[in-house]
Amino acid sequence: MSGEEAPNTDIITLTRHVLNDQFHLGSLATGDLTLLLTAIQTTSKFIATNVRKARLINLVGLAGETNVQGEEQKKLDVLSNDIMVSQLRASGKTAVLVSEELEDAIIVEGRYKGKYCVVFDPLDGSSNIDAGVNIGTIFGIYHIQPDSKGELSDVLRPGSQMVAAGYVMYGSSCNLVMSTGHGVNGYTLDASLGEFILTHPDIRIPSRGKIYSINEGNAAYYYEPVTKYLNSIKFPATGKPYSARYIGSMVADVHRTLLYGGIFCYPDDKKSKSGKLRLLYEAFPMAYLTEQAGGVATTGRMRILDIVPKGIHERCPVFLGSKEDVQDVVKFYQAEAKEVNGKA
Ligand code: AHM
Ligand code: MG
């Protein structure tokens, strides 16, 4: 025998893992969700490859258009959106598609029409591409309602009604983290196999962490509960102050929070009255994953997954992460509400 170890032949790929879940569901499982997830995996592999080549093949830079939020689109945003839409449509499993990059929802018609709705941000944090910082794809999946043929109302539903959600992080490795409502699992792309392999089974957020993550450049605009909460963790009466980490790329900041615990915040403030992050395809999927991993996700005033969206590009404040850390910030909001009620 040489010193080299034989490769493991019992690798658990994402497809195998999801299929296995469906076997357990028995007759309920149609394999449709598995096929849909295959479309998402293909998209992710395409984006992962192109993110790595971006500088070399001139994909970095502006595509010369602005998206619905009035932001400049990068070439990679456009490419990522296009491949995601074409793969999801071709899967034959989707009825409604909502993308951060498209003003209107796409209603899939004809023979490709399926029973799932996918809301997604094809390339989140794309202002980081030039600097080589982690970026990601975020997605959430609804099943159409019982009597629906697939219309806008199927995605204007609370995040708690999603059947699956996840993200893909394009970093030093490419990681896909997702949940189908039975806990959270993480997979790493083995580029030589072209497969996502189960590497982080059953991710659980520690009940308390040591890290807070927020854009403190907005401190001048914060409302009082946020300022007071931050002071409480930076200048604690006892114990060590929290460490600050902020990448400014939600997928990376949330990924770290899921694995190590702590809190990720993007609050509303005096400048951004509804916060910055988009409810449907940023806050909902991340809140879904956080709760599935045993954490808490709130606006400060209510559970994120209970919000009923009024529009597809609506924004919402976000605090998510370790249960105890998020409960701490909520206490400051409750104290403020009490004070306001007391005065009324
Ligand atoms: P984007 O959808 O335009 O990429 O913006 C979303 C990103 C998130 O990834 C990140 O959490 C946040 O915006 C960072 O915003 P800021 O630069 O204001 O801190
Ligand atoms: Mg985004």
From TrEMBL:
BP GO annotations: fructose 1,6-bisphosphate metabolic process; fructose 6-phosphate metabolic process; fructose metabolic process; gluconeogenesis; sucrose biosynthetic process
DNA-binding among keywords: no
Domain Fructose-1-6-bisphosphatase class I N-terminal: 12-201
One Pfam assignment: FBPase_C
Cofactors demanded by this protein: Mg(2+)
Catalytic activity: beta-D-fructose 1,6-bisphosphate + H2O = beta-D-fructose 6-phosphate + phosphate
Cleavable signal peptide: none
Keywords: Carbohydrate metabolism, Cytoplasm, Hydrolase, Magnesium, Metal-binding
InterPro entries xrefs: FBPase_C_dom (IPR044015), FBPase_class-1 (IPR000146), FBPase_N (IPR033391), FBPtase (IPR028343), Fructose_bisphosphatase_AS (IPR020548)
EC assignment: 3.1.3.11
Cellular component aspect of the GO annotation: cytosol
MF-aspect GO terms: fructose 1,6-bisphosphate 1-phosphatase activity; metal ion binding
The protein's annotated pathway: Carbohydrate biosynthesis
Family, per entry: Belongs to the FBPase class 1 family.
Subunit structure: Homotetramer.
HAMAP family, per database record: FBPase_class1
Name recorded for this polypeptide: Fructose-1,6-bisphosphatase
Organism of derivation: Jaapia argillacea MUCL 33604
Lineage: Eukaryota, Fungi, Dikarya, Basidiomycota, Agaricomycotina
